[in-house]
Design a protein that fits this description.
Structural class: mainly beta
CATH topology: Porin
CATH class: Mainly Beta
Order of helices and strands: EHEEEEEEEEEEEHEEHE
CATH superfamily: monomeric porin ompg
Strand content: over 45%
Largest sheet: 12 strands, antiparallel, barrel
């Protein structure tokens, strides 16, 4: 998923890192065929990558603490996939047009690392708590294309550019039979906003033949520096009708639904719908006109 801050996603599917190796379905989900688990978790991982570009902020979802168990990726085994995705998202800024992105998709995972979209995870933790529960975690590095240019909207004319940047942090995932919980903390390594974010998401996957549905709920805390950088108005940028505004820390909420369908053994298509609600600390800004930010992304993946 928060440009507009939506969860990266990184929370998009906390089941994404589990056993991408074909035939290595999690022991506590015996009713799912290995193929469908493989394609579904793969779609979740790359959907998070798509969302991290088409819906920057609150898509942490985007991969927030995306559990990277990969129980079947032992030794030198690895999995990778290629595809294409298209996303459309509403922007929070006054008079700003909807943003449309089309981009190639790349996913790669082995026992030690996972790359999906704009996120790289170094795997550090993969512990089985019981036959039905697993705790995972690792170090995260991700590019966040948030921000705007003064030319993006008449209301932003004269505003200094707000840039995206490189975020680093840690993620944890807790997989249970009832739901999957993801937690992620990241900090701006590019020194643009110098801000921090703390994201949490819960989701559950439902299988229906070759199709699966994964509803999710998430929240993202953004510190004062983050909110002020992307939604604030500096004194030097103030104009009649655009007073200076200093943002404060706030919590954005997100709900979404991902659907994926296995066409054949190595082919999968996916659709992701999401809605982010920005906090008043952002929406009180004179350059913001929307508090609810819908988005949609679709894509195709080929798994090698």
């Amino acid at each position: 998923m928060m440009t507009d801050h939506r969860f990266h996603s990184s929370l998009a599917d906390p089941s994404l890192g589990r056993s991408l190796a074909e035939g290595a379905a999690p022991a506590f989900r015996p009713l799912r065929s290995p193929l469908r688990v493989t394609l579904g978790t793969l779609a979740g991982a790359v959907t998070a990558g798509v969302l991290s570009v088409v819906a920057p902020a609150v898509c942490a979802q985007s991969q927030v603490a995306s559990p990277s168990a990969s129980e079947g990726l032992a030794g030198g085994q690895s999995q990778w996939a290629l595809g294409i995705g298209v996303g459309v998202r509403e922007r929070a800024y006054l008079d700003a047009d909807r943003k449309v992105n089309a981009l190639p998709l790349l996913f790669y995972e082995n026992r030690y690392v996972r790359f999906a979209g704009t996120t790289v995870e170094g795997k550090l933790l993969n512990h089985s708590l019981s036959p039905t529960q697993r705790l995972t975690g690792g170090l995260l590095l991700k590019y966040v294309p948030d921000g705007y240019k003064g030319s993006d909207s008449p209301a932003l004319s004269g505003m200094a550019e707000r840039k995206g940047g490189l975020m680093g942090g840690v993620g944890l995932g807790w997989q249970t039979p009832l739901a999957n919980l993801g937690l992620e903390w990241t900090s701006d390594l590019s020194s643009h906003s110098k801000g921090q974010r703390l994201q949490v998401q819960v989701d559950r996957r439902f299988q229906m033949g070759a199709a699966s549905f994964t509803p999710r709920l998430g929240a993202q805390w953004m510190d004062r520096k983050w909110v002020d950088y992307y939604y604030g108005v500096r004194a030097s940028e103030a104009l009649p009708g655009r007073p200076a505004y200093e943002g404060d820390a706030g919590v954005a909420l997100e709900a979404g639904l991902r659907m994926d369908y296995a066409l054949q053994r190595q082919h999968v298509i996916f659709l992701d719908l999401g809605l982010t609600h920005l906090p008043k600390e952002a929406t009180n800004s004179p350059i913001v006109e929307r508090s609810n930010l819908p988005r949609v992304s679709v894509g195709y993946l080929y798994r090698f």
